[in-house]
Amino acid sequence: MSKLFFSKSRPKTESLPEKSWKILIVDDDPDVHETTEFALKGEVVLGRSLQFLHAGSGQECLEVLDGNPDTAVILMDAVMETQDAGLQAVRAIREDRHMHQVRIILRTGQPGSAPELDTIHRFDINDYKTKGELTKNRLLTSIITAIRSFSQLKIIADGKIGMEQIIESSRFLRPDMNLSDFSVELLHRVNRLFGPLRKGVFCRTALGSTRFQWIARIEDDQVFTCDESPDCQPEEMVRKTIEDSLRSRRSRHLNNRNSLYLDDGEEYAYVLYMDSPDFHPDEIPLMSIFTSHLSLTMQNFRMYHRMERLAYEDMSLAIPNLSALIREIDSVDTSEKYLYLLDICQFGVLNDLLGHDFGDIVLLSFVERLKFSFPPGSFIARDSGDVFGVISGRIPFEDLQDFFSLPVSVGEGSRQLSVNIGAVALNEEDVSGSDYLRNAHLALKRAKSEGPGKSVLYTPVIGLETRERISLLQNLRSAFTHERIFLMYQPQVNLADGRVIGFEALIRWKIEEGHFIPPSKFVPLAEQSGLIIPMGNWILRMAMHSLADFNRKGYPGLHMAINVSAVQLRDPDFIYNLEGALKDSGVQPEKVELEITESIALLGADRVVSLFQKLKKLGVTLAIDDFGTGYSSLSYIDSWPADRLKIDRAFISNIGAADTGGRIVDLVIPLGKKLGLQVLAEGIETEEQAQKLIELGCPEGQGFLYGKPMGFKDALNWLGKNKV
Ligand code: C2E
Ligand code: MG
Ligand code: MG
User: Is the pLDDT of residue 4 over 50?
Assistant: First the structure.
């Protein structure tokens, strides 16, 4: 392999020491050759001997030079086969062959035939002498001056080539490579720059430490990246040299061994160790330029990788983040793979109840569980909060759910977690990472809606349904702003005497005459989108406004039951808005009843109790709606300061049928009473149901038997025809 700074292409003459200056004597007189060589024989200039080359004509001179491009000095006879043969050869050397370093001493037989001054300049002729002038001493002085000048020029030219090589190398040492690839490339480059290397090592340590780690090594043109294997353990002498450099933070040059020290200014120190048999001390200045240059590259390397980490790593869990997940899907062949999104069920509640520090520990344990559950080589990232993304092969959902059903250790103890999984196959062409991610989120959402521990694989149908929901939501927003949303009022009665006790306000969305979208379809949508907050405030105001109107029209004793969603109750401004509505409508707060479903239990017992207490402070009454369909435990409800229990319609419709429905009503009525609550049965449609409920001691009811939900005017008419 040829060396770039100090050419090794020169032919080695057996009898001469390796380093010598080549002097080319060009003359058509053989005597001149002989006497010149004789006069200079055995001389040493700048530590090197002289080696003589010979040519008898201008033409021959060029041929010899072609074989010896590193010739230092030419002693050129001006007049040979023609009057200007010497000058013609000089012109060819400088202008055709572009050899600018070789020094030329022009000699002529007679004084007075000196070339013109501008010729001397043009061809960069060092010296002009008549042959008579060239006594041994004068000749030697002339040669020494010429060699000095040649050597300076050569250092400059070699340095220039070296610099070019350094700059060229940095094109290949890109900071966006990973450290291992970077190191491999670096060793290939230095092998060309300073080699061939018998051995080369690139190693790294934390700045200030001498405990280093090999990253890559080169031996006989072969580069290896290093792991912990014994092959990669340094020999004693190499280790000592490297440690010495790290301790002193200096480069070391010992015989053929160079250990170049560099650091990135902040984080890591590096040593590039090179054992190069052909090393020459003249190379040290270039090595130090190379080292400075490499230090800068390492600083860039550090900055790039830090930025990369900031951009693509989740700092708190030390795993790739969402951007990294998308990049991975976009850049890697994932055609056989799946993207899984895993969401820890109830994590928000856990976090709220037990604190964020605990939440963080749970997340860390969960990451460990992910690593354990998915096969090695899977890409694990944090999507956001408690949602994680994993790219892996196909794994049955049941297997994954089995893994996640095992308790995870959290701090001292352990905890059972359940997860929802949404997955998508990454097998379509021209689908971007963010599109896949969106689809996986749709599948996850679907899984969550199915309940804790459920998993869903994305299908195009899911995408379609979601688009439909989105368009429904858009329509709902516009309906709300265009007043196609309104309230209907359904009477609630005392079962024993049939007297009206109040109304329940029920929302309606009319899309065209006689055509409605049921609240069971759009209320959840409004809850998910947050639209329920402004809509709920409007409902509160509207219902209280109607209650005030009923009062004014001669029905002062009625109450108004208003459905309130758990999402509204979580809104920090809810109490403030409720207060505002009460004040503006002027109704008595105790005539306003908020209907709340058991799903509120998800907020946690303490929060529910404190919320209920705040509401009660305002004077409003509270009803637990749809009782029996939720999943809260009775002990919860016992602690809630509610006023009324509404038995869900499902249990009432079963009355009379010989199954459990009727029996549940049997149990619930005394239970409500025991808890000190009013009990109201929903969905009474038949006399038989009403009779049975009266027998069982249920005091209040609501249902089509008494009255369907009606507009305000119809409700007023209805009041006129019924007992109040
Ligand atoms: P809910 O609060 O349990 O309301 C009672 C539902 O039962 C109403 O359905 C009502 O029309 C229906 N119903 C009443 N009597 C009978 C009967 O004898 N037979 C049958 N088959 N049904 C009867 P609607 O109006 O469709 O409301 C459904 C649910 O939507 C409500 O259940 C409530 O959870 C929610 N909702 C309705 N209005 C609002 C509202 O203004 N805000 C909120 N957040 N939710 C509301
Ligand atoms: Mg209700
Ligand atoms: Mg209900």
Answer: no
* pLDDT at 575 > cutoff 90: yes
Q: How far apart are CA 471 and CA 220, in angstroms?
A: 68
Tell me the C-alpha distance between 341 and 433, whole Å: 13
What are the start and end residues of each CATH 3.20.20.450 domain in the chain?
A: 471-717
Ligand nearest to the CA of 506: 1
Say how many Å lie between the CA of residue 157 and the centre of ligand 1.
92
pLDDT in tens, 522-563: 999 899 888 999 999 999 999 999 999 999 999 999 999 999
CA distance linking residue 699 with residue 593, whole number of Å: 17
Q: What is the pLDDT of residue 16?
A: 40
Q: What is the pLDDT of residue 75?
A: 93
| Cβ atoms of residues 49 and 16 within 8 Å | yes
Question: Which residues make Cβ contacts (< 8 Å) with residue 698, sequence separation at least 6?
Answer: 495, 647, 665, 669, 679, 680, 681
d(CA 590, CA 587): 9
Q: What is the predicted pLDDT for the residue at 78?
A: 85
Residues of the chain with CATH 3.30.70.270: 324-458
Question: Does the pLDDT value for residue 2 go beyond 60?
Answer: no
The class of domain 20-159 in CATH terms is: alpha beta
Q: What is the mean pLDDT of residues 74-92?
A: 89
For the chain, counts of helices (H) and of strands (E)? 24, 30
pTM of the model: 0.51
Domain with CATH 3.30.450 in the chain: 172-311
Which whole number is the average pLDDT over 164-174?
75
Residue 232's pLDDT is what?
66
pLDDT of residue 221: 82
Query: Does domain 471-717 bear CATH number 3.20.20.450?
Result: yes
**Distance of alpha carbon 204 from the chain centroid:** 25
- Ligand 1 mutation target, pool 504, 537, 542, 563, most atoms within 8 A of CB: 563
Name the residues around ion ligand 3, CB cutoff 5 A: 625-626, 682
Residue 521 CA, ligand 1 centroid: distance in Å:
11
Q: Which residue pairs from 83-87 have beta carbons closer than 8 angstroms and sit at least 24 positions apart in sequence?
A: 85/57, 85/58, 86/26, 86/58, 87/115, 87/119, 87/123
User: What would the DSSP string read from start to end of 133-188?
Assistant: G--HHHHHHHHHHHHHHHHHHHHHHHHHHHHHHHHHHHHH--TTS-HHHHHHHHHH
In this structure, the number of other CB atoms found within 10 A of the CB of residue 626 comes to 18
Q: Separation of 136 CA from ligand 2 center, angstroms? A: 122
Nearest one of 555, 580, 554, 578 to 503, comparing CA atoms: 555
How far CA 635 is from CA of 133, 483, 565, in Å, comes to 123, 42, 22
CATH 3.40.50.2300 residue ranges for the chain: 20-159
Where does 318-459 have alpha helices with state H? 322-331, 347-354, 356-373, 397-405, 433-450
Number of residues written out for the chain:
724
Please give the distance, rounded to the nearest whole angstrom, from the Cα atom of residue 559 to the centre of ligand 3: 16
In the CATH scheme, what is the code of domain 324-458? 3.30.70.270
Q: How confident is the model at residue 18 (pLDDT cuts 50, 70, 90)?
A: low
Q: Which of the following CATH numbers is that of domain 172-311: 3.40.190, 3.30.450, 3.10.550, 1.10.3210?
A: 3.30.450
With cut-offs at 50, 70 and 90, classify the pLDDT of residue 5.
very low
Higher-confidence residue of 343 and 627: namely: 343
Exposed e or buried b per residue across 182-197, where buried means at least 16 C-beta atoms within 10 angstroms of its C-beta: bbbbbbbbbbbbbbbb
Which of the given ranges, 325-339, 622-636, 651-665, 710-724, has the highest pLDDT on average?
A: 710-724
pLDDT reading at 82 higher than 90: no
Ligand nearest to the CA of 627: 3
- Residue 22, pLDDT > 50, answer yes
Residue 231: predicted pLDDT: 61
